[in-house]
Amino acid sequence: MTREQYILATQQNSLARTENPQFYPVGIYGWRKRCLYFFVLLLLVTMIVNLAMTIWILKVMNFTVDGMGNLRVTKKGIRLEGISEFLLPLYVKEINSRKDSPLVLQSDRNVTVNARNHMGQLTGQLTVGADAVEAQCKRFEVRASEGGKVLFSADEDEIVIGADRLKVTGTEGAVFGHSVETPHIRAEPSQDLKLESPTRSLVMEAPRGVQINAAAGDLKATCRKELHLQSTEGEIFLNADTIRLGNLPVGSFSSSSPSSSAPRQTIYEICICPNGKLYLSPAGAGSTCQSSSNICLWS
After folding, report:
1. pTM of the entire structure?
2. Ordered DSSP codes for 188-252
3. What percentage of the chain reaches a pLDDT higher than 90?
4. CB 246 within 8 A of CB 261
5. CA separation for the pair 290, 107 (Å, rounded)
6. Are 146 and 166 in contact (CB under 8 A)?
7. Which of 15, 192, 220, 273 is the most buried (most CB within 10 A)?
């Protein structure tokens, strides 16, 4: 093929191609385009709704640069004003109220305050319920506002009351199941002091003495059976202007004859010497109670 023939052949092919051109569209058309517009519109509506909800929440919750609503974030911690409700446990290091208002903890059932150590073990618990106030700890103390004096403390071994005076105002008094140690028991002015054990004995002990004093009244000791006054080493001292022994049987001295078969009755005199001592003496003419200062009692 010559050069002229090749040029003519190529020109004919180019003319045929230009007579019947084919176009290929570029882009999204039809239902795909409508779906894309729908998703874009839905995304735009969702963004507008989210933005509106965010603005509404910020306005309702009162979000500011300092905090949220009644909750304020300060340098010292978190400040909460007004009434607040906690639906879950609250873990804090310190709770303080404002200087001009009290701190109120309120619950429909009870208020429980727990203290734990670094291992998470419960070391103390205070529960305020509808029926009782319970405290569970190793040692419970109540201190005075001034000076920090311990007014009341309790542990497993003992209970200590550090107040200057313990006052019991109940009509039934105070009931103790075991022993009581105290240096002074006193009733209110113009009131009677009564120590009573309804079914058992009442014992008062002191290593250096027990003193019972009625400055403006009588002292009475009454029992159903015997009344014993015993001194192991010392003496029993009765100091009064008049000493009376009532309801004593009165005896009479009579000498029995030798021929009588009845046993001879011996009568003794109870004599009191000037120093206060008592002694027995046979009754009769030879009585040793002859001093005018002695007091002789017949029995």
Report:
1. 0.41
2. PTT-------SSS------TT------TTS------SS------SSS------S-----SPPP--
3. 7
4. no
5. 89
6. no
7. 273
